[in-house]
Structure formats: C-alpha cells, structure tokens
Specification:
single chain, 2 helices, four-stranded antiparallel β-sheet, CPE0013-like fold, three-stranded antiparallel β-sheet, alpha+beta
Length: 126
C-alpha cells in the first residue's frame, strides 16, 4: 500500500504544491514540481527531514543576556531537541563576533553566532 503526503516546496520561490508518494518497496515519487529542486526537496522531506536551527544562548552579560545562534546547514530533525538542550546548557562569554562558532561539530553541523556583541563593560569615551 502506498502513502501520499501533500507539501509546499520551499526549495525555490515558486512554492510548488507537491504530492510525494512512498511505495511499498521504499521507492518515492514526487509530482507537482516545476524544477528538479522540488523533486529533491520532496524526497528528502519524506525520507530524512532536515532543518536550519535558530536559537539563543544565555550570556553572563547584564547588557546582553542572550546571544543569537544558528546552524550553518540543516540538521536532521530528530537531533534538534538534543541540540537545543546542549545550547540552553551553555553560557557564552562576551565579546562575540558574528560568524564565530559556539559549537564546531554537532553531528556534522556548526553552530554560529549571528550577531556581534561588544564586551560587557564598555569603557567610557574620553
């Protein structure tokens, strides 16, 4: 018995309505896509969904109590709760540079800061 899932493709701006059908033998067919990226997206979404993860991590700063982070590439959806638990257990020290890695390797993805934050105590000017 085959199973069908309706999706809206997010691989490009067109937003095609996809029908992804999984067969008994594990074969997957995608229809409704207007470009090859839609077929790839539909198959990946059914077989092994992945997501870019964005979050914030606490800091020791009273001026900037949290710092925004994101993964550099999509992470397997089933690993997201584990990543979030890891992130929320961390505390970042200032200063932070945008693009700097908080975690170098979490199951093949890097977690990067998405904002530059100055030192907690900014010296007075003058």
């Amino acid at each position: 018995m085959s199973k069908s899932v309706e999706l809206v493709c997010i691989a490009c701006p067109i937003g095609c309505r996809l029908t992804v059908t999984s067969g008994i033998k594990g074969d997957v067919e995608v229809s409704g896509n207007r470009c090859p990226r839609g077929e790839i997206y539909g198959k990946e979404e059914v077989l092994a969904p992945r997501r870019i993860v964005t979050a914030t991590v606490p800091t020791r700063s009273s001026l900037f109590p949290s710092a925004p982070v994101r993964t550099d590439k999509p992470l397997a959806r089933e690993l997201i709760p584990q990543l979030l638990k890891t992130l929320y257990a961390r505390t970042a020290d200032l200063p932070i540079k945008q693009g700097e890695a908080l975690i170098e390797d979490f199951h093949g993805v890097r977690v990067l800061f998405t904002r530059t934050l100055p030192p907690d105590e900014v010296p007075p000017v003058g």
